[in-house]
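Troubleshooting log. The previous structure file for this entry was overwritten by mistake, so regenerating from the original sequence record. Sequence copied from the archived sheet and checked twice against the printout by T.R.
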Amino acid sequence: MASTQRGKRLMGEINVVPYIDVMLVLLIIFMVTAPLLTQGIKVELPKAAAAPIKPKNPNDKPLVLSIDEAGRLFLNIGGNPSQPIDQQTLLARAAAMLRRSPDIEVLVKGDSRVPYGRVVDAMVTLQEAGAAKIGFVTDPLPAKKQR
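Regenerated output below.
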């Protein structure tokens, strides 16, 4: 340690208290914003005993078309994902996304109370956009109680 002109010694220690304060503030910010980042449309999915599909590339976000109880369409890409869209907008956005990445997974998340014809219409629109394979999102069946 070198001494200064007045005879005081320099302190060679790191004060970690400000770093702890910054980390706590960041922790609070992330805790508040994390629930806001979850997006999607509230739908009551049908229950099925289907095995989960493993994505080809876990880093790729699938193209998800949600259909709510009223039959409105929502797409997880472009614009506001919580804003309903019409068939033409769905066709344009899905076609653009499928041109950019043709191997992207395409999933339909249809409410169990929506008429089957509405789901089929949406699937036909996705096929017109270029989707070769379309998967359905379901909830797992409730676990059977063991005796």
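The mean pLDDT is 82. Archived copy saved in two places this time.
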